[in-house]
Write a structure and sequence with these properties.
The protein is of the alpha/beta class. It has a single domain (4-101), classed as 3-Layer(aba) Sandwich (Glutaredoxin), CATH 3.40.30. 35% of the residues lie in helices and 26% in strands. The protein contains 4 helices and 5 strands; from the N terminus they run E-H-E-H-E-H-E-E-H. It has helices at residues 11-16, 32-47, 62-67, 94-101, and strands spanning 4-5, 22-27, 52-57, 75-80, 83-89. The protein has a 5-stranded mixed β-sheet with strand order 1-3-2-4-5. The longest helix is centred in the middle third of the chain and has 16 residues, at 32-47. 31% of the residues are buried. The model has no long low-confidence stretch (mean pLDDT 95).
Length: 103
Amino acid sequence: MEVLHINSGNFDELVAKSDVPVLLDFWAPWCGPCRMLGPIIEEVAAEADGFKVGKVNCDDEEELAMKYKVASIPCLILFKNGAEVGRSLGVIPKEKVVAFAKS
């Protein structure tokens, strides 16, 4: 599956109402660590089994970033049944991203 591009208009449909966990990467184009994590997120999304992967551009979606109190990026937030159940800050290896998404 490819990475979902999440915004305030599709958040409810793709994340809040999802019947599987959703891993969101809050990022920005100017953020070096975000650019390092980006290809990892793409790989995880392509191989995702039992969960979805999405990205939220914090520059374009300030409202979502503020709603989830994202103060540092990259920030991975795991949602289950529309609620935040976990958070990871900074760049982590692919294996840890997958383990986090399946936790």
